[in-house]
Amino acid sequence: MRVLLDVNVILDVLLEREEWRIDADVIWKAAQTDELDCCVAASSLTDVFYIARRFIGQEKAKAAVGVCLEVLTPLTIDQMIVDAAFARRESDFEDAIQIVVASVEKVDAIITRDAAGFNDSPIAVMSPADLASRLQTSDNE
């Protein structure tokens, strides 16, 4: 399965956000073992760095982006992606970018804790809990 991780899921792992970390860790481990192809919009990596820097400092934030590059597949954001996202009706441009890149790259689902931002997505949207449950069920079969 090929999925696009929203920034919030990535940060749950990297910043060890306890409330959401368990499900995010299951997904991350599946990506590390190639059980799951986890992608990230390349533009989201700047968000990861910016947000992480506020919580853990510049050097650790840079290292966190390095970890992302080892585990996740960055998806290119080009002029066509930006134009198509700009033409969408989403109120959040970042979400529109992710919807378009997920469509172009033919991912199976967008994984986010903010499903409301993806209401008009032609790509399936799943919560980290739903995906983690699915992964754990397939491990037990």
Protein architecture, described:
With 141 residues, the protein is α/β, with parallel strands linked by helices. The protein has one domain (2-133): 5'-nuclease (Rossmann fold, 3-Layer(aba) Sandwich), CATH 3.40.50. 60% of the residues lie in helices and 13% in strands. It is built from seven helices and five strands. Helix 1 (7-14) packs parallel to helix 3 (42-56). The radius of gyration is 14 Å and the shape is globular. It starts with a strand and ends with a helix. The mean pLDDT is 95.
Could you give a quick summary of the protein structure above?
This protein is α/β, with parallel strands linked by helices.
| Helix-strand makeup class | alpha/beta
Largest sheet: number of strands, sense, barrel closure:
5 strands, parallel
- Rg over alpha carbons: 14 Å
The CATH level-2 architecture is identified as 3-Layer(aba) Sandwich
Q: What is the mean predicted local confidence, pLDDT?
A: 95
Listing every helix as H and every strand as E from the N terminus to the C terminus, the arrangement reads EHHEHHEHHEEH
Query: In the CATH hierarchy, what is the superfamily?
Result: 5'-nuclease
Shape from CA axes?
globular
Distance between the termini: 17 Å
Strand tally, please? 5
> How much strand?
5-15%
Domains (count) = 1
Q: Portion of residues in helices?
A: 55-70%
Strand order of the largest sheet: 3-2-1-4-5
Quote the CATH topology.
Rossmann fold
**Tally of separate helices:** 7
- Contiguous low-pLDDT stretches (5 residues minimum) are none
- Tell me the name of the CATH class: Alpha Beta
